[in-house]
Specification:
Blueprint: H1 21-44, H2 51-89, H3 94-102, H4 105-110, H5 113-125, H6 131-151, H7 160-167, H8 171-193, H9 199-220, H10 228-237, H11 240-254, H12 277-285, H13 291-295, H14 299-305, H15 310-326, H16 341-351, H17 356-373, H18 377-389, H19 391-400, H20 408-415
């Protein structure tokens, strides 16, 4: 009969090493002390007319300073996530099996654990990848506050020509920008709490602001004047993709355009047990739009790039592989206690068991499964063998279970740092370490 799924291995929480947060707070404190000192100087030299503009310009700097401080703290959280992944990979032969499943043969021969983690980390969360989105959000966020304050006729000390141009901007455009700006702040805080603040998510904020400023006046134009500000503000709250899809659909309808493309396969991630709408949306953000894609995805990348629990990641990938074999019929296998590929693959071991009774029970189980799925027994046997030999299933099985003590020496040798020969092995090594 089926062997029980091994007990799940939970990543060990590793204490974070000393960070540079103290130096950051010291620099920000010194910088913050300069501002009240400047206000006091204006009062001392009897320049009260400049105090209000100085306070307003502090608001202009808020988006850039806010994002910078938040990202510095986020990198400390990322370091903790990296330590969790390292603690999992360092266990037994997990790292060796990971290389077998997701790295090239050359990488398996020469890649140490640290280098593999660096490749996994810096391609997504390298420090340099945050420079451009941080600059764009600081610039557009500050520009929006300048426009909003000028449009409200608050004194910023700007030239009259600039003020005249700003006052000509339609109200719906300002409301659309306001909606995108406020949603951006909310989204950043939400992703920070979920340890999910990637460069791509920061890019979506400034992109949303640009799109909302253009589309908000156009979309709100079809409504009454009293509703225009509300509709324009709501446009800024919609995801950028949905706005583009709406505009594309309206253009296709107005121009009577038809598409000749073949109909795409319907999404099937929701067919997996326990996958919620929020999880589907998060997986789609990572480019995983089907169970077939999820079945071959790197579980460590999902742990790194999403806020999904480790147990959940292993479970949905395990289910996705089973879905790959039997499609929607895989739901029927739950009647036999088979929810994922690990339970399916474990049947193969019963075929070679020394106990004849266990082998007989295994044959009976296969016959029952074939009858329930309405397929030939040979098809079920073939699926069991393929799952048993699948390197992804082998890795998942190892991540779920315990490891033999004698395997520890193998991964210790694989994870030892290699001697530095003075050459960079990859461009990602140029990123500043955590």
């Amino acid at each position: 009969m089926l062997s029980d799924k091994p007990a799940l291995y939970f990543p060990v929480k590793v204490a974070h090493p000393p960070s540079k947060g103290g130096h950051l707070r010291l620099r920000l404190s010194l910088l913050g002390a300069l501002y009240p000192l400047g206000i006091a100087s204006l009062i001392y030299f009897r320049r009260p007319q400049y105090i209000l503009p100085a306070v307003l310009w502090l608001l202009v700097l808020f988006p850039g300073v806010f994002l910078y401080v938040l990202l510095q703290q986020f990198r400390n959280l990322l370091h903790g996530r990296r330590e969790e992944i390292q603690s999992i990979m360092s266990r037994g032969t997990t790292f060796t099996k990971y290389l077998k499943a997701f790295e090239s043969t050359r990488g398996a021969q020469t890649g140490a654990l640290k280098k593999t983690l660096d490749r996994l980390f810096y391609r997504k969360y390298g420090r340099s990848r945050y420079y451009f989105p941080l600059a764009m959000n600081a610039y557009l966020g500050g520009l929006f506050i300048v426009v909003a304050l000028t449009w409200s006729r608050l004194p910023l000390g700007l030239p009259d020509g600039f003020t005249t141009i700003v006052l000509k901007i339609p109200g719906p455009a300002i409301c659309g920008l306001a909606g995108a700006f406020i949603w951006g702040l909310f989204d950043v805080l939400r992703r920070f709490e979920a340890v999910d603040l990637s460069p791509a998510s920061l890019h979506s904020i400034w992109m949303r602001m640009l799109v909302a400023s253009i589309l908000a006046p156009m979309i709100s134009g079809a409504f009454t004047p009293s509703l225009k500000p509300l509709i324009a503000f709501a446009v800024g709250l919609f995801p950028t993709k949905e706005i583009f899809d709406f505009v594309r659909g309206q253009a296709r309808k107005d121009l009577n355009l038809t598409t000749s493309a073949q109909p795409a396969e319907q999404p099937n991630l929701h067919k997996l047990q326990g996958v919620s709408e929020t999880m589907v949306s998060r997986l789609i953000d990572e480019g995983i739009e089907s169970a077939e894609q999820l079945a071959s995805y790197d579980p460590f990348k999902l742990l790194l790039r999403t806020n999904l629990q480790w147990k959940t990641i292993l479970d949905i990938i395990d289910q996705a592989i089973l879905f790959d074999y039997f499609g929607e019929k895989s739901e029927r296998l739950r009647e036999f206690g088979i929810r994922g590929s690990i339970e399916l693959a474990s049947i193969q071991e019963d075929f070679t068991d020394d106990d004849a009774a266990i082998r007989a029970q295994c044959e009976q189980l296969v016959a029952s499964i074939a009858c329930r799925l309405e397929v030939e027994e040979i098809a079920v046997r073939n699926a069991i063998r393929n799952a048993y030999e699948d390197v992804q299933v082998e890795l998942l099985w190892d991540l779920w279970g315990d490891t033999d003590p004698e395997d520890d020496d193998d991964v210790a040798r694989a994870s030892e740092p290699e001697e530095d020969d003075g050459e960079k092995t990859s461009p990602i090594d140029d990123d500043e370490s955590y």
